[in-house]
Amino acid sequence: MLAEDKKMNGSNEEREALTTRQGHPVIDNQNIKTLGNRGPAMMENYHFIEKMSHFDREEVPERVVHARGTGAFGYFETYGKVGDEPVEKYTRAKVFQGAGKKTPVLVRFSTVAGSKDAPETDRDPRGFAVKFYTEDGNWDLVGNNLKIFFIRDAMKFPDMIHAFKADPASNVPDPRRMFDFVSRSPEATHMITFLFSPWGRPATYRHMQGSGVNTYKWVNDKGEAVLVKYHWEPKQGIRNLTTKEAMEIQGKSVGHMTQDLYEAIERGEYPEWELYVQIMEDGYHPELDFDPLDDTKLWPEDKFPWLPVGKMVLNENPTDFHAQIEQAAFGTGVLVDGMDFSDDKMLQGRTFSYSDTQRYRVGANYLQLPVNAPKAKVRTNQHRGQMSMRTPEEAGGNPHINYEPSMVGGLEEADKSERTPHNPEYSGKVMSEPIDRPNNYGQAGETYRAFEEWEREELIANLSDVLSICDERIQEAMIHHFTQADEDYGRRVKEGIEAKMKELEEKGDDNRIPGQEAGIKSKYGEGGTNAQNEAVDEAIEKGRETDGY
């Protein structure tokens, strides 16, 4: 760089020279090579062609769910106990053993249904995924901020996400699609109660809870197993937003949660969460009025208390968002020794889906990327594929043997004597049937009654606003579900819908008649929420006319 160029840049420091991806110094990064200074361009523009062709391929496909997100690095510190008991009583997982031991972690927070650039103020569950780089390999604890889910069977998951996303014809978000699905899925009543309350709009990622949602197992040295649920509790406290507050924030920023997390860590205000578990003996538990494997349900704390096992601190921001956060890949099947799967049908389905989507989205060798690679040594015969970065050491002592078993060399199975396996016994008919203790409404009513009055008022207002534009059949079904949960709940939603419909009709908006009568063809695609409809009208009414140029 010339002295006068350095002066113009306001810097006298010597900086490293820009190179191509082949390591060649770039002496002109401002002008393509042309015939004369006006063009045409020449074919031998190697630097330009490499630069532009890589730019065209910069993005990997966004996640189908949890597309909008951010993350940070830190550590998990174990207490070495479960409550007051030694952790070894329940699990031999090394990540929990040895009080004070720290394990590096990566956490990715996200929204669920929105696209990569959707507002972070949207009403949506928030993803809370933690990757532990343990001495026994990676462990992924993949969950949400809300401790339950909409459905209990993985077969319904693609349909649910389709219903929650934008209309496939118009690409307009339309809540009628969501409630059309939910009205035929009564098990979603509990989750809808949480989602349309202020709990559906966390204020920041730092001020929200986390949960594994699904039921897992812990296994001890004897091969004995217990059921376990995971809960993250923020030491910063919990903060939620009303719809009005969220919309005010959204008018100023669509990424305030990402900014808040990043800047808090930069300031040295490292967010912390305490990890709790609930433990239950594995079994049917006939004394409960619900199936403990049903992820639309909470385990009552008075019967299954929260037991602290450790804390997590996030103290390091990413330095390359794409490499460290966008390419980060999580899976519910990523467990370490001392952990196992329960018979939870949602967990079984997620275990295939999560890792499979990363193979498509990032690539067959996504586990070789630094952010996804374990800190423990990798020795595997799984190799090749696009962009493989496998090192010779991964093949073991004999690189000529890429199979197992072998008499002459290569890798071999680990010593089984070090781990007593957990071998559950099963006996029953193979079938495709729902569980026999659905109890779709009991806990939804309990949650409604546990809310503070301002939370109930916000819940009713939010549901009434959205349901007022829905088909009459959907309205009736949802009122039925809410009434089954709690009579006051159903009555107030019914009255709220009627009041909102009357308000809309008095406005005289003939183009968007609320509460379509049963039998009238749906207008999906012609409008979204009442607020969205108002925005469309206001854009035209308030738009300033001007001449062309």
TrEMBL record:
Alphabetical list of SUPFAM superfamilies matching this protein: Heme-dependent catalase-like
Pfam families: Catalase, Catalase-rel
High-level lineage: Bacteria, Bacillati, Bacillota, Bacilli, Bacillales
Bias kind Basic and acidic residues: ranges: 1-18, 413-422, 503-512, 539-549
EC numbers on record: 1.11.1.6
Active site: 66, 144
One cellular component term from this protein's GO annotations in UniProt: cytoplasm
Any single biological process term in GO: response to hydrogen peroxide
InterPro entries named in the record: Catalase, Catalase_AS, Catalase_clade1/3, Catalase_core, Catalase_haem_BS, Catalase_immune_responsive, Catalase_sf
Protein name: Catalase
